[in-house]
Amino acid sequence: MIKLLANDGIDPVGKQLLEEAGFTVDTTFIPQDELPVKLQAYDAITVRSATKVRQALIDACPNLKLIGRGGVGVDNIDVEYAQSKGIAVHNTPAASSASVAELVFGHLFTGVRFLQDANRKMPVEGATKFNDLKKAYAKGIELRGKTIGILGFGRIGRETAKIAYGLGMEVLAFDLYPSVNEIELALGGGVKATVPVKYASKEEVIAQSDFISLHVPFSEEPVLGAKEFAAMKKGAGLVNCSRGGTVDELALVEALNSGQLAFAGLDVFDNEPTPRAELLQHPKISLTPHIGASTNEAQERIGVELATLIINYFKQ
Ligand code: NAD
C-alpha cells in the first residue's frame, strides 16, 4: 500500500479519490524538525506553502518518490535536487487562479472605498460628531472606467484582466514573455466576448495605470521599489497577491505616507506569516494572510488535481 503524508492538509474530495485508489492518506501535521525521521515511512508527501522540502529532508528520506505542491509556487521545495534523485515533483498551477483574481478585487474595492479603515473606525454607540458618524475620508472612487496595470500576464494576471473587463475597466499588461493576444470572457447570462490584450512596456504600465496588480513569480530583487512608486500616478493603488519579496515593503510604506500612493492591498509579505510591523494597522493598507487560494472551490480543484496526478504517477 502506498503511504502519502498530506502535511499541509488536502481537500476531502481529493483525499477520498486517493483512498478509493488504494492509498493510505495521513493528514496529521508533522512539524518541520520531526519530518527527517517521520517522513521516512511515506512514499509521497503533499505540501502547500508551509512545509519545506529541502535537500536535507530529501536526503533523509530515500523512499520518497513524489512531492506534490497544492498550489503554484514551488519555492519551498528543492525541485532540481529532488528530480536529480528521481523524485517526481508536481504542482497544481491553474486550480487557484480565479480565486486569487477575485481576492485582487477584494483588495481593490477595499482600497478605493477605505473598507479596511472604515471597519476599524465604525461609529460606536453614543457618537454624535459628524466626523465620527460619517467620515469625510469615506468619499471613494469607482473602479469603472479606470485603468488597471497588470504586471505578469500569466494565469492569474489573465483572470484578473477578465474581472477588470467585466467591471468596465481598461487593462494594460506587461509580461517578460507575452503569450496571449486576446482574452476570452465568459460573462454571466451565457454571454461570451473576446477582448484584444493591450500590452505596454513596464514603464508605460507603471506610469499610465490607476492601479497596479502584481502577478509575477518570486524574484530575488523586488519588481516594484522606490523608483517605480515614484513613477506611478499620484494617488494610484497597488495590489500584491503574488509572492513576498516582489515589492520593496519599506519603500511602499514611504510612498503611502507621502501620499504618492493612495492605498495598497497585500496578501503576501517578506515575512510570513507575521508581516513587518510597519504594515500592520497602517490606515492605507489592507492585509490578508496569504489567502489567495483559500476558497472552497480552489481547494477542491487543487485536491482533485493533486490526487489525479498522484494516482496517475503511481499507476505507471
Ligand atoms: P504564471 O507562471 O502563470 O504567470 C507569471 C507570469 O509572470 C508569466 O507569464 C511570466 O512570463 C511573467 N513574469 C515573470 N517575471 C516577470 C517580471 N519580472 N515582469 C513581468 N512579468 C514577469 O503564474 P501565476 O499562476 O499567474 O501566478 C502568479 C503569482 O501568483 C506567482 O508568484 C504565484 O506564486 C502567486 N500565487 C499567489 C497565490 C496567493 O495565495 N496569493 C496563489 C497562487 C499563486
From TrEMBL:
<dbReference type="InterPro" id="IPR050418">
    <property type="entry name" value="D-iso_2-hydroxyacid_DH_PdxB"/>
</dbReference>
<keyword id="KW-0560">Oxidoreductase</keyword>
<feature type="domain" description="D-isomer specific 2-hydroxyacid dehydrogenase NAD-binding">
    <location>
        <begin position="107"/>
        <end position="292"/>
    </location>
</feature>
<dbReference type="GO" id="GO:0051287">
    <property type="term" value="F:NAD binding"/>
</dbReference>
<dbReference type="InterPro" id="IPR029752">
    <property type="entry name" value="D-isomer_DH_CS1"/>
</dbReference>
<dbReference type="InterPro" id="IPR006139">
    <property type="entry name" value="D-isomer_2_OHA_DH_cat_dom"/>
</dbReference>
<dbReference type="GO" id="GO:0016616">
    <property type="term" value="F:oxidoreductase activity, acting on the CH-OH group of donors, NAD or NADP as acceptor"/>
</dbReference>
<comment type="similarity">
    <text>Belongs to the D-isomer specific 2-hydroxyacid dehydrogenase family.</text>
</comment>
<dbReference type="InterPro" id="IPR036291">
    <property type="entry name" value="NAD(P)-bd_dom_sf"/>
</dbReference>
<feature type="domain" description="D-isomer specific 2-hydroxyacid dehydrogenase catalytic">
    <location>
        <begin position="9"/>
        <end position="315"/>
    </location>
</feature>
<keyword id="KW-0520">NAD</keyword>
<dbReference type="Pfam" id="PF00389">
    <property type="entry name" value="2-Hacid_dh"/>
</dbReference>
<protein>
    <submittedName>
        <fullName>3-phosphoglycerate dehydrogenase</fullName>
    </submittedName>
</protein>
<dbReference type="Pfam" id="PF02826">
    <property type="entry name" value="2-Hacid_dh_C"/>
</dbReference>
<dbReference type="InterPro" id="IPR006140">
    <property type="entry name" value="D-isomer_DH_NAD-bd"/>
</dbReference>
